[in-house]
TrEMBL record:
<dbReference type="InterPro" id="IPR043129">
    <property type="entry name" value="ATPase_NBD"/>
</dbReference>
<dbReference type="InterPro" id="IPR049067">
    <property type="entry name" value="MreB-like_C"/>
</dbReference>
<protein>
    <submittedName>
        <fullName>Plasmid segregation protein ParM</fullName>
    </submittedName>
</protein>
<dbReference type="InterPro" id="IPR040607">
    <property type="entry name" value="ALP_N"/>
</dbReference>
<dbReference type="Pfam" id="PF17989">
    <property type="entry name" value="ALP_N"/>
</dbReference>
<dbReference type="InterPro" id="IPR022389">
    <property type="entry name" value="PRTRC_protein-D"/>
</dbReference>
<feature type="domain" description="Actin homologue MreB-like C-terminal">
    <location>
        <begin position="177"/>
        <end position="297"/>
    </location>
</feature>
<feature type="domain" description="Actin-like protein N-terminal">
    <location>
        <begin position="8"/>
        <end position="155"/>
    </location>
</feature>
<dbReference type="Pfam" id="PF21522">
    <property type="entry name" value="MreB-like_C"/>
</dbReference>
Amino acid sequence: MNMVVRSIDVGFGNTKFVVGHSDKDIKCACFPSLAYTSAKDPSVRPSAERRRTVAVPIDGLYYEVGPDVHLAADNFRATQLHDQYVETPEYLALARGALSYMKVDVIDLLMVGLPVSSFQARKGFLERLMTGVHALGGGKTVEVRRAVALAQPQGALVYYTAAYHKQRTIEHEQSLIVDPGSRTFDWLLSRGMRLVLKVSNSVNRGMSDVLKTIAQEISSEIGRPYSDLPAIDTALRTGKPLLIYQKPFDLTPILPTARAVARGAVSSMMEWVTEDYSIQNVILVGGGAFMFKDAIKAAFPNHKIQVVREPMHANVKGFQIAGSNLMEAESQESRRDAARQ
């Protein structure tokens, strides 16, 4: 019987998850890491008002999460950008929302991730939190029989090794994985596949800081508070103009202040990563890769910067590969034990 392995990466900006895995492809999906609460189940609204969300019941409240969660938004943007994020009901709602979209009843192994700075302190807690039977709403449940947490950039290292066919050489190389996320800017140094945790860390200087800096500059220009961070993010990623009061707003004069945020994060990393001449692979992943790429290149002028394909999903794809490899290794060990008996 095939064992079911799935992966979730609940980030501060987006919740990424695996919905299917074959030898040729890992199918991923995502939705914003936002959860809005209500006392009544919002999924029972009339069909004309329904949206692509699920209502997750936790402690007497319903947490609405999913791709159309912005339609449930009020004036307060319910983000959870703090170090205890993993311990909040919002985190659990996002994770259970991802489980709901996987459409399976049992998961034999669930892989999850944590920022580098909180990995050692919260690994055990997160594994316990995600193990067991989870109520998904509408009378549906899923059983997670086992959960394993990895540092988020560790997933990217696994994905890079597999996607770029580095299995034979990576063991003899030193790699730096840089992961600019929404809230945290993570980096991880490895020798082969072994982590060098004393040189790996995170700083709270991610894409949300870039977007807030731009929003502050826009506010000064238009003379009133501006807070549509998703609109700024879309404009930066697509190159399409940001519309304010129905007119295109030129972000070009503001971009140097945004790039200064990225340089500050990279400077913090370089205080830890001092022996850059020993690094063979500099791997850039994460949803903020496009904004931080120039600062990384400036910090490593003698290196080729490898920006992986689909950088936002690199971590969760690596989790999936690592989980599948773990299950296969354990299965082989069981077969060997049975043969010796």
